[in-house]
């Protein structure tokens, strides 16, 4: 389709799926319209994703003669299925917000490292889970509340489902990175492909091929495989902003560990559903038997119907909140949360009303057994009595996640599930002994009410601190960035004081350069008395620009503060010493390091160990004292020592490759040519050094005192 004026206008109105290289629409688009564009597809995606298990249960529950028993058997599989999904959330929902934050900081490289690391970890986890499920599924299902009547249905389902674990993990985990980039419609399409396939294949396998629960499991893994192929294809393709790249597939602890820390809360929230399902099933089996466990399968399904759209709303808001948090826009972060809270609370209230008014309609979706339906109708009203409050819980918890606040997110998840709900499952039957089965169901609304009150209080306190921190950091960035001079006319005295401290710091680096340069010039003078041609051919010096300092801090994800510059940026002051021969490089190094007021911090010898590109140079990080009015201050500086040939290659290589957006095959060809040129320069250095040695030997034989 050609680009018309209408199309151009549409791109402005719908940037979410249209402009892959510019994510600033997350800061500029109206929040209401933006949340609709991002949240509606993610909510739809969550509802569609839910169909995988719910459609299975609907079809299984209507199998003639065995429907109720088979439904109970598959229901016991839910803890294991939830654990598989929880591991996907651990990686995906931990990595995706961090990737969004780095996109907000304009650090695409770090965001892509997170994506690659998470992809690899997702595959490793899926392999481990597959082995565990295939070997121990029967033992686990018996421990989770299966009876002799239902165990065979559960085992039959899990033996097949386990083979598709890798598809579930990659689809759910990596799809979070698609939505985190603003490609909400694409994320919805990822699960829609699988859900449609599942709806079509379920009746074919269950009824047409008479495979009962095995057919439901087979339909599920085939459907997930189709979704998995689509997700991986998109993240490796041209339309995505963040790409899965080979160079980022290795697991780096400094990259993956913060992602896991952030994802733990969502993992706990989902994995706890598995633990809670076990607790409910064991307690209900004791007091109510198979019918109570069967009803719990339906209750869990309806609760999923309630919670997954809330998670979808949170996922839709996550890119907005995370990106603006990374960009330092406190007002937009605050406004996005308020909007998320209103929409989430509105949804949970409406759903609560429908469940209270029409419980039988929800029960009839899953079973045609009259006894099970009647039992479920009463239990559902009790179990979901406080679901109208869950909009508050999920809005706060998902916002904690979007802001990268792993600890707070974990605390609220643990409070609701482990500290409150699990104990209440066993305590309530001891308190209300007249109907112990229904008292088990009451544990859910009581725990939810207390948990929401706790979460709301914690969020109110922490959110104020977060907003203040954003505003403070934004102010410091403005002082230190390359455009700060444009604002100096509007700055108050406090700002002027910070600017003065920054200028003082830069002046220290300037003094360090002068100090080292003087030492080198003294050495050069001494060398002139000893050598016919001096080892030092040239000395170059510079102090890194303000914008260069800021870019380096942002690229490494470090704070843009004066302390951070001193502690982390060691090449603010830089000198380059050009020598005639490789031997002279090490002569200069030894001479400069012999001086008692030079401290060596770090040495990297790229002459003996060249970079893959062919780059050669000797890098020294040193500390040198500068003497101020009332103190001696040690300042770090970088000294690069290289030959004329090395410098010639490095200078031209930088000019040829800097900011060149080349096609991959062309870039690869040029890289090979540059490496070959570097080898030629190295050969030239060695040849010239051999010639010098021969001349020295010849002069020595003649008794000539001249040396080179």
Number of domains: 2
Order of helices and strands: HHHHHHHHHHHHHHHHHHHEHHEHEEEHH
- Helix count, per DSSP? 24
Termini gap:
70 Å
Secondary structural class: alpha+beta
Unreliable sequence segments = 1-22, 482-497
- β-sheet strand percentage: 5-15%
Using the alpha-carbon principal axes, give the shape: elongated
Overall pLDDT level = 77
Explain the overall architecture.
- The chain has 2 domains: 31-479, no CATH class; 503-702, 2-Layer Sandwich (Beta Polymerase, domain 2), CATH 3.30.460.10.
- 74% of the residues lie in helices and 6% in strands.
- It is built from 24 helices and 5 strands.
- The chain has helices spanning 5-13, 15-18, 25-28, 31-61, 67-104, 108-143, 151-161, 165-180, 184-208, 212-235, 253-287, 290-327, 330-357, 359-364, 370-383, 390-402, 406-431, 436-480, 493-530, 546-555, 562-568, 582-594, 644-657, 664-702, and strands spanning 536-543, 573-579, 599-605, 618-627, 632-643.
- α4 (31-61) packs antiparallel against α5, α8 (165-180) packs across α10 and α11 runs antiparallel to α12 (290-327).
- The model is unreliable at 1-22 and 482-497 (pLDDT under 50).
């Amino acid at each position: 389709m050609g680009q018309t004026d209408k199309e151009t206008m549409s791109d402005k109105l719908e940037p979410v799926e249209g402009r892959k290289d510019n994510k600033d629409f997350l800061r500029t688009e109206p929040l209401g319209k933006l949340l609709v564009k991002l949240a509606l597809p993610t909510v739809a995606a969550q509802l569609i994703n839910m169909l995988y298990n719910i459609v299975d249960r609907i079809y299984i529950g209507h199998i003639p003669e065995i429907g109720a028993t088979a439904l109970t058997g598959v229901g016991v599989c839910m803890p294991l299925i939830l654990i598989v999904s929880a591991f996907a959330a651990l990686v995906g929902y931990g990595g995706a917000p961090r990737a969004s934050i780095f996109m907000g900081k304009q650090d695409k490289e770090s965001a892509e490292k997170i994506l690659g690391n998470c992809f690899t970890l997702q595959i490793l986890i899926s392999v481990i889970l597959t082995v565990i499920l295939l070997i121990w599924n029967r033992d686990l299902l018996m421990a989770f509340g299966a009876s002799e009547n239902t165990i065979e249905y559960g085992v039959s389902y899990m033996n097949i489902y386990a083979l598709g674990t890798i598809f579930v993990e990659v689809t759910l985990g990596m799809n979070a990175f698609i939505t985190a980039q603003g490609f909400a419609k694409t994320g919805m399409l990822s699960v829609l492909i699988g859900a449609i396939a599942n709806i079509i294949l379920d009746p074919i396998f269950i009824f047409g091929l008479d495979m009962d629960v095995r057919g439901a499991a087979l339909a599920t893994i085939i459907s997930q495989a189709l979704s998995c192929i689509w997700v991986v294809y998109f993240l490796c393709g041209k339309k995505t902003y963040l790409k899965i790249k080979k160079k980022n597939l290795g697991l780096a602890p400094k990259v993956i560990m913060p992602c896991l820390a952030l994802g733990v809360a969502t993992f706990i929230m989902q994995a706890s559903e598995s633990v809670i399902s076990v607790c409910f099933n064991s307690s209900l089996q004791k007091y109510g038997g198979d019918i109570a466990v069967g009803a719990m399968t339906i209750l869990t399904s309806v609760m999923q119907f309630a919670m997954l759209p809330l998670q979808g709303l949170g996922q839709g808001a996550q890119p907005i909140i995370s990106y603006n948090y990374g960009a330092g826009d406190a007002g937009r972060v605050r406004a996005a949360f308020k909007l998320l809270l209103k929409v989430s609370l509105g949804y949970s209230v409406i759903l609560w009303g429908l469940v209270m008014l029409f419980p039988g309609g929800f029960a009839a979706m899953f079973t045609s057994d009259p006894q099970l339906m009647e039992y479920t109708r009463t239990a559902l009203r009790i179990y979901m009595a406080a679901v109208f409050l869950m909009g508050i819980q999920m809005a706060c918890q998902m916002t904690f996640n979007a802001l990268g606040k792993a600890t707070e997110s974990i605390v609220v998840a643990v409070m609701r599930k482990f500290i409150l709900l699990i104990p209440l499952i066993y305590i309530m039957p001891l308190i209300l002994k007249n109907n112990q089965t229904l008292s088990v169901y009451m544990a859910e609304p009581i725990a939810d009410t207390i948990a929401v009150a706790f979460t709301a209080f914690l969020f109110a306190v922490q959110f104020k601190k977060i907003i203040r921190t954003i505003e403070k950091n934004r102010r410091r960035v403005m002082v230190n960035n390359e455009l700060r001079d444009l604002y100096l006319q509007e700055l108050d005295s406090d700002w002027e004081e910070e600017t003065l401290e920054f200028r003082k710091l830069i002046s220290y680096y300037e003094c360090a350069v002068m100090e080292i340069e003087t030492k080198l010039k003294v050495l050069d003078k001494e060398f002139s008395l000893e050598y016919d041609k001096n080892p030092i051919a040239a000395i170059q010096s510079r102090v890194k620009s303000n914008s260069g300092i800021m870019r380096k801090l942002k690229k490494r994800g470090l704070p843009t503060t004066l302390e951070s510059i001193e502690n982390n940026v060691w090449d603010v002051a830089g000198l380059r010493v050009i020598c005639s021969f490789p031997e002279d490089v090490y002569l200069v190094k030894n001479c400069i390091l012999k001086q008692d007021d030079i401290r060596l911090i770090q040495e990297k010898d790229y002459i003996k160990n060249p970079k893959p590109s062919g780059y050669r140079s000797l890098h020294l990080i040193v500390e040198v004292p500068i003497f101020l009015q009332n103190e001696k201050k040690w300042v770090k500086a970088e000294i690069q020592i290289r030959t004329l040939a090395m410098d010639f290659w490095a200078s031209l290589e930088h000019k040829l490759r800097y900011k060149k957006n080349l096609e991959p095959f062309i870039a690869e060809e040029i890289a090979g040519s540059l490496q070959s040129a570097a080898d030629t320069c190295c050969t030239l250095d060695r040849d010239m050094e051999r010639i010098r040695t021969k001349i020295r030997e010849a002069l020595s034989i003649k008794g000539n005192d001249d040396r080179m």
